[in-house]
Each structure stands twice: as structure tokens, then as C-alpha cells.
Write a structure and sequence with these properties.
72% helix; 13 helices; globular; 0% strand; mainly alpha
């Protein structure tokens, strides 16, 4: 309880919450203005923009990060305008990702800089691919909010992660109980970029926490990879109703992954044990998904 009170009392959370509520209001305004046009792809941009705006108001040095995220978004927009194949779109994020990785001041660890450069284009693509299947349930936004909570639990320096939580939680109400917005294509890359920067900033004092924090992305990364091997995995949640209760039920595996990565993997001092735990969690989760898909396929064939 004391940790929760401390969270609520910090300026990083309070200012972030104001921007998060503003983002929620902007989102609903856009929904009203564009009614009957389906689910809007704006939540990721709202989360990324509001998080960076909060840090700027609090006088944190984020010039490099803000410009890099803008370049990433513009790169994805350009790739889509040029009608690049799906697998080539992440290349649009690569210049901004590399610039961010090797110019940000949030970390001095070379492997973290490499992770930033690689994870933004790959993570953005996988997250966008995930949303193609579950946009109607709002799972992309919900899973991202859970991942943000995991980072707060994982890292020792929590100022920026408090801001990310404060922004992400209100925006989640654009996706639940009724899904009216998704992260969106550009927003997937922007939100992942902010996520990795926040994780790197908060985990410097205990590098293993960066491993655990980044791994909290969980099913946003794993589900598309599993789908590449077993497309029938999508049938597993076919029995889950696409309503508010179904979204909660579908979020339980993501919650479990976030809990293990943030409470176990992130607690080590060195990176290697954290990597082993993350590999075990990811491997077990993917194996369960593939096994369930195989069982589902066998049952369908027998019928």
C-alpha cells in the first residue's frame, strides 16, 4: 500500500495522469468526429506523445528522444505512402531507431543501445501484426498497459516508468470495456520506442532489470512469432467472446508473463540469469501456444 501511495504522490505520475486524461479526451473526440469509420489507430501515438510531453513539462532532457520518435513515425508514414511490402515497413523506422540508440543519454551500456536499435523496428512490426488480429478486442492497448506496469515493477529508478503508467492507464479506456481505438501502425512503433527508452532509463542501476523490463512486452512479440509457425493458433481464442469480459480473460497470459519477467527475471544483478529466465518464460509460453494449436487441429480433423 505504501508503494501505491508513493506512486500516486509523485509529480511524474500526477502530471502524467493529467496528460493521460487529456489524451483520453482527445481520443474520444476523434472517435466522435470520425464515428462510423471503425476503430481508430491513434492510441499508440497518444501514449507516446503524452509521455514525452509529460517529461518535457517536468524539464527532463528528452530532445533526442522526442526528435527520434518523430523521425521513426515519419519513416513509417513514408514507407506506407510508398506502398512498401509489409516486411519492408520496419526499415522506415530503422534510421530513427539507430539515431536514438546511439545518441540517447538514458544508457551507457552498448548492448542496451543495440537492443534499442533492433527492438523498435522489430517490436513495432510484431505489435502491429498482433493488432491486425485483435483490434476488435483492444488487446494491443491493454497488453501494452500491462507491459508498462511491468516496467515500473522491474526497474529500480521509476520516475519515467511512473509517467508511462500514468499515461497508458487512461488511454486503455479507449480499448476497454469497448474498443474504439488501437495502437495503430505508426503508433505501434512510437509506443515501442518510448517503452524501450523508459526501460533503459530506469534500469541503469541494475542492468538485469532492463532485460526483464523489455521482456514485459510479452505476447505482443510472442504471438506473431508463434503465428508464423502455427497460423491455427488464432483459433485458440475463438471461443473467447469479443467483449469486455473476453478481453480480460485473454489478458491473463500476458499478465502472467509480465509478472514473471518483472518479479523474477528483473531481480537478478547480472544480465545472464535474467536472460535465462526470460528465455524459459518465452519458450514455455510459445510451446503452450503451439501445443494448444496442435490439439485444436487434431480435434478438428477427428471431427
Amino acid at each position: 500500500m505504501s508503494d501505491l501511495i508513493e506512486l500516486l504522490e509523485t509529480s511524474y505520475f500526477q502530471v502524467g495522469l493529467r496528460f493521460g486524461l487529456l489524451a483520453l479526451g482527445v481520443g474520444w473526440l476523434l472517435v466522435w468526429l470520425t464515428r462510423r469509420r471503425g476503430v481508430l489507430p491513434v492510441a499508440g501515438l497518444l501514449i507516446a506523445g503524452s509521455t514525452l510531453a509529460t517529461l518535457a513539462v517536468l524539464d527532463d532532457p528528452i530532445g533526442t528522444e522526442a526528435i527520434s520518435v518523430l523521425v521513426i513515425v515519419l519513416g513509417i508514414v513514408l514507407a506506407r505512402i510508398l506502398r512498401a511490402p509489409d516486411l519492408m515497413i520496419p526499415l522506415g523506422a530503422l534510421p530513427g531507431s539507430v539515431w536514438l540508440a546511439f545518441n540517447t543519454d538514458v544508457t551507457e551500456l552498448f548492448w542496451v543501445r543495440l537492443a534499442i536499435a533492433v527492438l523498435i523496428p522489430i517490436g513495432g512490426y510484431l505489435t502491429g501484426d498482433f493488432e491486425k488480429r485483435y483490434a476488435g478486442m483492444g488487446l494491443g492497448v491493454i497488453f501494452f498497459a500491462l507491459a508498462s506496469l511491468g516496467v515500473f515493477v522491474a526497474v529500480p529508478d521509476t520516475e519515467w516508468s511512473r509517467t508511462l503508467i500514468a499515461v497508458a492507464l487512461p488511454v486503455t479506456f479507449l480499448a476497454w470495456p469497448k474498443a474504439v481505438a488501437t495502437l495503430g501502425v505508426e503508433g505501434s512503433y512510437a509506443s515501442i520506442a518510448v517503452f524501450v527508452v523508459v526501460t533503459a532509463q530506469g534500469g541503469g542501476a541494475r542492468p538485469a532489470s532492463i532485460v526483464g523490463g523489455l521482456a514485459c512486452l510479452g505476447l505482443l512479440l510472442m504471438e506473431p512469432l508463434t503465428m508464423a509457425f502455427r497460423p491455427e493458433v488464432v483459433r485458440i481464442i475463438g471461443w473467447i467472446k469479443r467483449n469486455w469480459a473476453g478481453a480480460v480473460l485473454a489478458s491473463l497470459p500476458q499478465f502472467a508473463v509480465v509478472a514473471l519477467c518483472s518479479r523474477v527475471a528483473a531481480r537478478f544483478t547480472n544480465e545472464l540469469p535474467a536472460l535465462i529466465v526470460v528465455a524459459a518464460v518465452y519458450g514455455a509460453t510459445i510451446a503452450v501456444g503451439i501445443s494448444a494449436a496442435s490439439s485444436e487441429g487434431a480435434e478438428r480433423r477427428s471431427n
